[in-house]
């Protein structure tokens, strides 16, 4: 036994906001850059160079920092710290993009200059230089350990060159680090743009 009618109820139609229909096959980045009041998003840098730079930074920092974070804090607090850092990084990047577009600012240095003044800009640039030098030192230590070997607690771990060719003056740590610095790092830091 049913009470009421079997006819379908007329749904109350609420006015909906007009939503844009987005083409799912559209590229995320436009094929050509539009000029808007002489503001260029990449300011002369290529997209592939920017992706390469960001990828090497993220991968390098992750390889160096994440295992140490989890080892010191433990698994659960370490993962929570990683997630919190990711959320804070995402929010900071969002703020930087929003304010750089609002002020037609095309470089990170100019954005920091507007936010912190000329002394703040100088201190931010100095901290970037110090951070990059620190990262290069970490890379040199890892290259020295892997390629030429290391001795820890009286135990010697042979590196790649020592394992292949034995102990020679050119398989030693000093030669490997100096050679890597002069043959790899010096040419890379000399380029104005890494994509060239």
UniProtKB/TrEMBL annotation:
The keyword Calcium does not apply. InterPro entries: AA_transpt_TM. One of its GO terms (cellular component) is organelle membrane. Keywords: Amino-acid transport, Membrane, Transmembrane, Transmembrane helix, Transport. The chain crosses the membrane at residues 74-93, 126-147, 167-191. The keyword Transmembrane helix applies. One of its GO terms (molecular function) is L-amino acid transmembrane transporter activity. It is a multi-pass membrane protein. Residues 45-192 form the Amino acid transporter transmembrane domain. It is found in: Membrane. Residues 1-20 are annotated as: Disordered. PANTHER family: AMINO ACID TRANSPORTER (PTHR22950), TRANSMEMBRANE AMINO ACID TRANSPORTER FAMILY PROTEIN (PTHR22950:SF634). This is Sodium-coupled neutral amino acid transporter 4-like.
